[in-house]
Amino acid sequence: MANTSLPLAPTQILAALTSALTTGSIRVIDLTQTLTPEFPQIALPPEMGQCWPFRIEEVSRYDERGPGWYWNNFSCGEHTGTHFDAPIHWISGRDLPNNSVDTIPAQHFVAPACVIDCTADVAGNDDYLLSVADIGRYEAAHGRIPKGAWVLMRTDWSKRTDPEAYQNFDATGQHTPGPSTEAVRFLVEQRDVLGFGSEAIGTDAGQGYHLRPPYPCHYYMHGAGRYGLQCLCNLDLLPPAGAVLVCPPLKIEKGSGSPLRVLALVGSAT
Amino acid sequence: MTIPLMRPPRKNPVLRTRQMNLPPGARGRVALGLTAAAAEGRFELQTCEDCNSVQYPPREVCHQCLSPRLQWRAQSGAGVLLSSTTLHHSNDLFFRERLPWTLGMVHLDAGPTVMTHLHGDVGTAPQKVRVGARLDRAGQAVLIAYPQEGDAHMADDKMLREMTSDPKFRKVLVTDGKTEVGQSLVKALVKAGADIVWVGHAEPWKKLGGLEDISALPQVTLVPLDLTNGRSVSELAGEIGGKVDIVINNAEVHRNFGIAARRGTDAAKAEMDINYFGLLRLAQEFGPALMGRSADGETGASAWVNLLSIYALSNFPPHGTFSASKAAAHSLAQCLRAEMRPAGIRVINVFPGPLDDEWNQQMPPPKLAANTLANAVVKALRDGIEDIYPGDVAQEWLERWRDNPKVLERELAAGGG
Questions:
Q1: Which residues contact B64 (CB under 8 A, 6 or more apart)?
Q2: Which of B205, B231, B266 sits opposite A163 (nearest CB)?
Q3: Helix, strand or coil, per DSSP, at residue B297
Q4: A39 touches chain B (CB under 8 A)
Q5: CA distances from B118 to B43, B79, B106 (A)
Q6: How high is the pLDDT of residue A4?
Q7: pLDDT, tens digit (0-9, with 9 covering 90-100), for B376-388
Q8: B228 and B314 in one domain?
Q9: Is the model's pLDDT at B413 over the cut of 60?
């Protein structure tokens, strides 16, 4: 555990942090999926508006279109790839102050993360819902979830590199894990978390439309001004407690979210 | 008796791929009337409105009475073969590479005497024959004399195969296997004797049904292909582009909106991204490979099929943005046709009326069944036709459009489909 007997001045903390980053005693872990055209996007019924998948086209590549340089144009939706959900994304959060990516306080983009390991449960049940009891077991082992922390649901779902297995659709829709209504309310109301993060395509379960209310994680988190992160990976490289997430979304005017790079600062075990 | 086409031997990979030398392709403006009719599978000759005489070759005025009032009219083609000649030498590269080649002189019952290519089943003169017009590899109309009674394999005639794109023993790419049209096309191509049918499969996580049935066919291979993703198109072209003989681009997005019925441009963009840009991406990646193999043996690369819509001719306002995307695709397909002509690759445009599919659920019948459309496409490949308008609605719209496009526009604006 950290030694709290010698409080450091803020400048000393930053100096210690940069020194630890240089020596590697604090490591930076990338929790981001690579943006590729093949990475699946969220699928809604075809009559509804659709989130664009990631698409990329060369502007030039040291050729007649630009002899000395290589660059691309890309297009995507605000909710493509590893991305951030702002409260304005959901109707329950639409009238909150500072609810879009351009107005969220920058202070919120650096925060501790608690990683709840659900891999064993998800291995046997694609529709697994994180329960209040799971949170209780986590806290018994790793301590109380601090106020203003990210809660990340580790499922190893990101290891499904085949898009078909990652999306996991059948005739009844999508089957991916997420939190139960009760767990979301507990995290918002009892723990005052900053947001919820998932490895699957959404913060809610694939069958979340059939929960009450539909999509409870979106409904309660964003209704309370909290955030979402989805399509995360490498959660298996994080400690259950003690990691710090750095995850600023793009500053899109009135943006409901954005693809982003999610980094975790992790103290090395030794 | 035509000798049935046998499966060609595998290509010897150390031999250079032969390049196309086209037959003579220059035609004057008047003569292009013959080509315009042949492009739709008809044999038409100029008929004088004043003296009723039928003439060939096409001219500015009637050869009997000098009247300029000439109309192109469909001909039965019935006639008598007067004489025939088999060429064993030609200085024209196209014919030089395909000798021997037989030509005939036919006296049509309608009046004129015409020079034709002779189908191999036609015996010695004099005898009754039937003359038809076909597009040759240069895309221009030529006349062919067929025997009065054809046999089952007459489509395998060596001369005729130079004019057509029969799927038999050919390798075909169908760009979207997820729709009923795509699946019907695959089945029709397999039935027509296609050697391999590659079937494009976008967004594999979306299950729409029917794909299992066609992928169980031994000729069928599913391939990842998403026309919105340039890299996907480019990778597939790299993998199979050098083997594809016929591309059938049936991928489309269809939404039922005009301008005011849908906020924003997302649905219209999705339509354009597949219907127009998808064709552009596909043509850039697969076009050069097809053109390089258009003289590659008996079953070389030969055709490119675009699924357009009769709405490409005139906007159907309830499906206004779809119509616009198909009009754009039609325009691009004309460019593709012009660019592929030097290689002798036939670009076939298909203009169906409303299909009997999910996005026309609320359209009243008649609606075109997927297998009717698929059979029409295979027939167009076999007959060497360039533009087809399958189904009653398409035929009727075409007639009204030809009669007066402005009147049709007004009728459609007033809700008259």
A1: B48, B51, B53, B55
A2: B205
A3: coil
A4: no
A5: 16, 13, 10
A6: 56
A7: 999 999 999 999 9
A8: yes
A9: yes
Token pair for B15: 């031999």
Residue among A40, A53, A171 minimizing CB distance to B207: A171
For residue A89, indicate whether it is catalytic: yes
Cβ-proximal residues to A263 (8 Å cutoff; 6+ apart), any chain: A28, A29, A30, A31, A32, A245, A246, A247
Task: Please give the ipTM for the structure prediction.
Answer: 0.91
| Pairwise CB contact (< 8 Å): A50 & B205 | no
Residues 191-230 of B with CB under 8 A from A: 203-207, 226, 228-230
- Class of domain A22-45+80-267 (CATH, top level): alpha beta
- Residue B136 CA to chain centroid, in angstroms? 12
Could you give the C-alpha distances from A138 to A144, A194, A237, A240, in angstroms and in order?
A: 8, 17, 17, 8
Residue B16 lies in a domain: no
Average pLDDT over residues A80-109: 98
Residue from the list B207, B229, B267 with its beta carbon closest to the beta carbon of A37: B229
Q: How is chain A split into domains, by residue range? A: 22-45+80-267
Instruction: Report pTM.
Output: 0.94
The token pair that represents A228 in the structure block: 């979402």
**Residue B320 located in a structural domain:** yes
Number of domain units in chain B? 2
Residues of A in contact with B205 (CB under 8 A): 40, 43, 163-164, 166-169
Residue count (chain B): 417
